[in-house]
Structure formats: C-alpha cells, structure tokens
Amino acid sequence: MAKKKTLENFYSESGNQVPESLKSGIGHFNVFKLDEFAGPKAKPMPFNRREYFKISLVTGKSRVHYADKIVNVDKHVFVFSNPQIPYNWEQIDEQLTGYFCVFTEAFFHQYGNLLGYPVFQPSGHPVFELTDDQVDSFTPVFKRMFAEINSDYAYKYDILRNLVFELIHSAMKLQPANLASNMHSNASERISSLFTELLERQFPIESPTQRMQLRSPADFAKQLGVHINHLNRALKETMQESTSILIAERVVKESKILIRHTNWNVSEIGHSLGFEETAHFSNFFKKHTSYSPLKFRKAEII
C-alpha cells in the first residue's frame, strides 16, 4: 500500500498552491466543489490512507471502497473519511457533482475529539446513501462554508468548525438506533471503549516490519489490568461478542486490506498480524472468509 497521502500531496496533484497554514503546521480547513475533481478527465484515485479528514457530499453513480468494504451508490452519498481507514472512489457516471471539505485534526485542537464520533471510528458507519430531500438539507451547509471561508470575519474558522460539527451530528441522526451502543455510561462500556482503543491503536499496518503486539484476549486483559473473564463479560454485555471474536474480526478486516491492496507476500502479512507461522495465518483467513489468501487476492471478492 502506498504511503499516506498528505494535504501537500492533495494540493500539488490538484494544481493548487499549498496554503501557508500547512507550511506553518497549524490546523487547516478548506472546502471545494467536487465537479472540478470528478469530471470526464478525472484521474483515478488510488486506494490508500490520507493524513487528513474529509467529508464528501456526492451526486452521481459511483462506487466507494473503504477498508474491506464496497458500497455501490446509485444517486447520492455522504462519506466521512479519516486517516485510519484507506479508501478510494470509483467514478461510474461521466460527471459527479457535489462538495467536499478537508481538514486536519489540529484544526479541532481543544474543540473536541473527532475520532470519538462514530462516523470517524473504524468500527463505525462512514457512508450514508441519501434521498433528494436529505441532500437538499446538507447542501446549504457546504454553501455556508464557502461564504465563511471567503469572508473577512476574524472568527470565521470558529463558524467553520461549527458547520463541520453540524454535518457530523446531522449524519449521525440518520441512524440513531445504531449509535446507542457508542454511549459510554457504565463500567462495562468504559472497559469496552478502552479495549477498542487498544485494538485500533495497532492499525493501520503500513509496513511488513510493523507487527501487531496485542494479539490474544489475555494480552488485552493484562494491558487493561482486569481479569480476562471480566473483560469478556464486559464485551459480551456491550458489544454482544466475545473478546476473541472481536479481535479475530478486526484482524480479518486488516488482512483483507493488506492482501488486496499491497504486494506483500502471505508470509509478510501473517507475520505483521501476529502469526508465527504462515500456515496458521492461511488457516485462520480461510476459516473466517472461506477463501485462501491467494485466492482472495486473485478473485473479485467483496
């Protein structure tokens, strides 16, 4: 997989001047019309991770690839992209229209934890297919972003942060039932939250020399300072799955990404995911997907 794409790369490849805010290292925000980037002569976007956040509102037939998932879009889609998850966009219609904004985590310094919101979490739901009415409710927010960023108002970036939060919360309201499990109010939920943080902190795997360190339920229990049975009960209560299943699901997800989108051999992938023997990794992958790693790499399997 290619190295993470920076905002400097994004501006250079799109023919725009790199803003001074990036050169100085302070937080950055910008908003664009999609039409200029997704026309008939648009270059394909490689599948990789970006070092920035992105919120996209897109109209037109397309296919969104993120992590190990593919979403076919017939009309409208709203997508939240974060630096932890690789993605790309496959354009089907000759011309896509819409808007997108890009920003760094530093732009929200002292204004909240972006990765705490489900739409930006690896286990969350970052892709929303929209109706015409829903698109009409989101479009004015992007238009207000253009108005503010081009204004001389001294506190315009505070308004822009609020508009980003408006997009986040409006999207999350589209599926309130699925977000209830992300509220942390008791001990089991706090343990589950810490477990998830420890698990996700080990990803993405970006080099064959990088290795997953916490691999077993016992590893996580020791790191969290709880008995393994306590950890398992907490996860069963809040996430309806055992510790071992949750670890396995995340390892399968990362293994699909590495098999499909890198040229690493099976041995390198297995080692990076904590397997001592290549055969153990191959058996694990086949057990959870019904395919061998090599067959999965060669086939068009979602």
UniProtKB/TrEMBL annotation:
UniProt keyword Iron-sulfur, yes or no = no
- Protein name per its UniProtKB record: Helix-turn-helix transcriptional regulator
The GO molecular function terms of this record are: DNA-binding transcription factor activity; sequence-specific DNA binding
A Pfam family matched in the record: HTH_18
UniProt-listed InterPro entries: Homeodomain-like_sf, HTH_AraC
PROSITE patterns of this UniProt entry?
HTH_ARAC_FAMILY_2
Q: Domain HTH araC/xylS-type: where? A: 189-299
Task: List the keywords (alphabetical).
Answer: DNA-binding, Transcription, Transcription regulation
